């Protein structure tokens, strides 16, 4: 078993040119947030919370959604008029980031995705006894 030298992966997607019907559909986004944790081996500990948003700038309207997973969280913010969605998936345990990335891009039919994956908590020691011995 490989020891990770960081706390967990944080997958962030800036999804441009998304399918506007999908990113404007509360039920669709709820279903996405409700099903993807199981698909990537995570444990959902709340039902998704999904809200429409209409701000001071009319073209910024969209949907915000969030689901808490035992391993951390998954969130989405959409901007319907701009065809844009931002998705974050952070986990304290490893997961198949490539599969998750592809699943998310395909779900929202993004024609111009930008993907960022960072290793959060570099140097984080999971074993407290080991951490105390190193000090």
Molecular structure report:
- By secondary structure, the chain is an alpha+beta fold.
- It has a single domain (8-134), classed as S-adenosylmethionine decarboxylase (4-Layer Sandwich), CATH 3.60.90.10.
- 27% of the residues lie in helices and 35% in strands.
- It contains 4 helices and 6 strands.
- The chain has helices spanning 20-23, 26-39, 97-108, 128-134, and strands spanning 8-16, 49-53, 62-69, 72-79, 84-91, 112-120.
- It has a 6-stranded antiparallel β-sheet, with helices on one face.
- Strand 3 (62-69) and strand 4 (72-79) form a beta hairpin.
- The longest helix has 14 residues, at 26-39.
Q: What amount of the residues lies in strands?
A: 25-35%
Rg measurement, Å? 17 Å
Tally the beta strands: 6
Name the CATH class. Alpha Beta
Oligomerization state of this entry? single chain
From the structure above, extract its key features.
single chain; alpha+beta; S-adenosylmethionine decarboxylase; 6-stranded antiparallel beta sheet; 27% helix; globular
